[in-house]
Amino acid sequence: MRRLLIVAVIVVVVIGGFFGYQRISSARAASTQPSAVQSVPVTRGTLSATVSSAGNIAPSSALNLTFNGNGQVKTIKVKIGDKVKAGDVLASLDTSDLDIQLAQSNSSLTVAQVQLTVTKKGPTAAQLAASEASLQSAQAAYADAKKGPSASQIASAEASVASAQAGYNAAKQTAGNRGDQLKVAENTLKKAELVLQDAQSAYDKVAWRPDIAALSQSKTLQQATIDYQSAQANYNVTVSQFSDTQVIQAQSGLTKAKSDLDNLINQSNDTQLKQTAASVAQAQSNLDNLKNTPTPEDMIIALAKVDQARLALEQTKLKLQQMQLVAPFDGTITNVTILQGQQAGANTAAISLAALNDLQIVVNLSEVDQPKIKPGQDVQITLDALPNVNLAGKVDSIYPAAQITQGVVNYPVIVKLVNPPPTVISGMTASANIVVDKRVNVLIAPNRAIKTQGRTKTVTVMFEGRQISTQVQTGLANDTQTEITSGLKEDDELVLNATTTSARAPGVGGFGGGFGGPGFIGR
Question: pTM higher than 0.70, yes or no?
Answer without folding.
Answer: no
